[in-house]
Amino acid sequence: MFGHADIAPGWKWDPGPLFHWKRLYDHGIGAWSDEQEVPSLIAGKSPQQLIRGEERLRSFQEHLKQWEYLLQVTGKLDEQTEHVVNAFHMHFLGEENTIPPEETKAVLHALIRKYPTERT
């Protein structure tokens, strides 16, 4: 299940960060990460492993595309990436944020692992 912000990031912002995506998931609708997996994906990461640098950001963008967000893989924290990161944050973390912290990457990886797909 997607919101307008997921489909048109930067153009549409609804339903926003306060929408109860987790509550829908608890009732069998939509996707949600396994919350106990996210801390284990973050644990032990050094500052060098955080999303910094063109190659790490490129990999992060590729994973966002795998999760069906529409964006060009540039390896840069450009405007389109900020919009997609903000949409992802509003949907899966319940907040607005355009900078992809380690938690964002962990939630995205947990979702991809939980819901594998052949799409890229």
TrEMBL record:
Belongs to the N-acetylmuramoyl-L-alanine amidase 2 family. GO terms for cellular component: outer membrane. One of its GO terms (biological process) is peptidoglycan turnover. Signal peptide: none annotated. It comes from the Bacteria. This is N-acetylmuramoyl-L-alanine amidase domain-containing protein. One of its GO terms (molecular function) is N-acetylmuramoyl-L-alanine amidase activity.
